[in-house]
Amino acid sequence: MAPPLITFDKVRKTYGEGEARVNALAGVDLVIPAGEFVAIMGPSGSGKSTSMNIIGCLDTPSAGTYAFMGVDAGRLDRDRRAILRNLYIGFVFQGYNLLPRTTAAENVELPLIYRGVAAAERRELAMRALAEVGLTGREHHTPAELSGGQQQRVAIARAIVSRPTLLVADEPTGNLDTARSHEIMELLTRLNRELGLTIVMVTHEADIADYAQRTVHFLDGNVESMALNKEKAG
């Protein structure tokens, strides 16, 4: 049997020294199987962002074990973590992070450039990803020519163009109005279902978290509670 995609085993994360020492994570246990859509919630300082950074291999535990696909990712050096991110993890952020003077297609191609994919194949894969997020016909528009919701769709296309195993979404609807927020969440739900994409999403909005299959609440560096979302559990 394959190991879970993500495993936290007594993960601790400490910042600072002496009186300035902060225990961001205080011994967290968490398991996320491949294909699950998980929402992470909690107040400021609860540990949700620290856990997200560790899951995305942007940071490492101070103690305990973070295993990704059965590999102790927390013990990998910076270069190997970068390779792991490039091969297996896509990221979507609140602020889109698109290059302003390049087209939607060119923005989506960026991860493929880092992989050394040839230009013709890059363009074909970018067009496919943009079609999957509903942006056919917008491939040659720059971010300034797109709405906020469309810009986030470009960011999602960029995150999935290389077919990652995991999508890390940090407040993906934070800059959007209610209608566009729900459109983006319906898109993420569809990608989770149709592509088998594992999604771990940080949000502070309960109605956005309800799109996930499970919600994990952090408080004071610990998992306070976790529960299946009723409408997804059946």
UniProtKB/TrEMBL annotation:
Listed Pfam families: ABC_tran
Coiled-coil portions: none
Assigned GO CC terms: membrane protein complex
Gene3D superfamilies named among the record's database cross-references: P-loop containing nucleotide triphosphate hydrolases
Keyword Cell inner membrane part of the UniProt annotation: yes
GO MF annotation: an example: ATP hydrolysis activity
CDD domains, sorted: ABC_MJ0796_LolCDE_FtsE
Domain ABC transporter: 6-233
SUPFAM superfamilies noted in UniProt: P-loop containing nucleoside triphosphate hydrolases (SSF52540)
Family classification: Belongs to the ABC transporter superfamily. Macrolide exporter (TC 3.A.1.122) family.
Designated name of the protein: Macrolide ABC transporter ATP-binding protein
